[in-house]
Specification:
- Helices cover 0% and strands 48% of the residues.
- It contains no helices and eleven strands.
- Strand 7 and strand 8 form a beta hairpin.
- The N and C termini lie far apart (39 Å).
Length: 123
C-alpha cells in the first residue's frame, strides 16, 4: 500500500518541542519533495515547510522560521519536522504531502498525503 504516515504529535506546553515524522511505505520518498502543512480549527490550511528531493533545500513559512527545522533521512524513507519554541498558535493538525514537482510554494499537485497528526500547545 502506497502511503504516508505521520507520527509524533501530542500535547506540549508553550516553549516546548516536538518532532514529527512522515514515513513513506510502498514507494521511495527520495524522489519526492515533501511539504508539511497545518490546519487549525476554523482556519485555512497553511504551508509550513518544504524539503526538496535533489539537494534537500529547505523552505519555511515566516511564522515558523527559526523555530522549525525540516530534514530527511532517505535510508529510513522518512522526513522529519523538528518544532522548537512552540506557541499556542502552532496548535493544528499537521499533514505531510509528497510531490514529484519540487518545492513550489505549497501549491500544485501532490501525489501522496498523510492522514495528519494533532499538535496541541497549551499550558
Amino acid at each position: 500500500q502506497l502511503q504516508l504516515v505521520e507520527s509524533g504529535g501530542g500535547l506540549v506546553q508553550p516553549g516546548g518541542s516536538l518532532r514529527l515524522s512522515c514515513a513513506a511505505s510502498g514507494f521511495t520518498l527520495d524522489y519526492y519533495a515533501v511539504d508539511w502543512f497545518r490546519q487549525a480549527p476554523g482556519k485555512e490550511r497553511e504551508g509550513v515547510s518544504c524539503i526538496s528531493s535533489r539537494d534537500a533545500s529547505t523552505y519555511y513559512a515566516d511564522s515558523v522560521k527559526g523555530r522549525f527545522t525540516i530534514s530527511r533521512d532517505n535510508a529510513k524513507n522518512t522526513v522529519y519536522l523538528q518544532m522548537n519554541s512552540l506557541k499556542p498558535e502552532d496548535t493544528a493538525i499537521y499533514y505531510c504531502a509528497a510531490t514529484s514537482n519540487g518545492c513550489s510554494g505549497y501549491r500544485g499537485i501532490f501525489d501522496y498525503w498523510g492522514q495528519g497528526t494533532q499538535v496541541t500547545v497549551s499550558s
